[in-house]
Amino acid sequence: MDLPLSRIRVLHIIGQIRRGGCELQLLGLCERLDKARFDLSVCWFVRMDEELDQEFARAGVQPIFIDKSGGSLLRFLGRLRRVIKETSPDIVHTWLFSANFWGRLAAMSCRAPRIVASDRCEVAMDNAVVRIAERLLASRTTRLANSLAVARSLEEHFGLPAVRTRVIYNAVQVPLPEREQARREIRDELGLPPDSQLVLMVGRCTWPKNYLMFIRVGQLVCGRFERAYFLAAGGGPEEASLRGQLQREGWEHRIRFLGDRPDIPRLLAAADVFAFTSDSEGLPNAVLEAMAAGLPVVCTEFASAGEVIPGPEHALLVPCGDADKMADGVGRLLAAPELCRGLGAAARDHVAARFSWERVVGETASVYEELMDSSSGR
Question: Taking CA 124 as the corner, what is the angle to CA 122 and CA 125, rounded to the nearest 5 degrees?
Fold first, then answer.
């Protein structure tokens, strides 16, 4: 008679658990992994607003916070080591740059049996210390990335062969409200005309998103289309300066920064076009969610854009930083409702087929099972 399998203990280590793209991917994974097979914990070390600790707890995940700021880095490393020793995980799975460095260092020093590191954006930090650390830790690490572009970035900067990095794409699931009701409500809430055409972008107000380009595109399009309004949803360090620029230039009515919003599905349902101006992305959840909502998308051609948008029948791609070409694309969509419907339907079908939670959970669980099998000699 076969004995029941023991649960695999997985400790996730991540810098913060605010409501952001990577953090929501981790939460979605933990919510859906089979709890009869996996015993999950999540450790984070930087406090932020809108943390997801209660959501992790409700998903049956043990949340553990340690404070990186409360003392020296050596003391912080010691705290991480204690968490690993106390949870005694079969697998330590780290997420994003800071946790990939500190979490793997602590796990290796504790002789954790299996280490997985997830990279979610192209490498931006490249110095001697990081390269040395990567060489020391690479042999003990099973590497995951959320796009081929990220895997190639690891090879370019750290010499990690892209073919040895396992690519598991993000998943999206957007529960949309009734579209016509959302269109009326959002326009009423913002004091916009009922027949206004809304161009939406979702993303934090920070460097890679290139909101200066978004503003320029808005100025060009609003100058041609009297019913067009541009909306940006997402807070961040550059929000105040961007708002100030709009006020100084007299555009604050037509181009609006809404700050952090808990109702992104309502905004997606209410919008007519989605415009994404980012210069660099690992794999952008915001674009995937817009496509899943059936919105026509105009997107900059950053490294992983082709993995999200395989052809012109799914969305329009323009060169990074080219506000004129994006304005032309947005204008083309605003003037052609049939084109919008066709692009939106093709985008929705593509995302449903390729970026499902079932696939992400199955592929990640397979990585864990393979690690347990290989290290037990089976």
Answer: 135
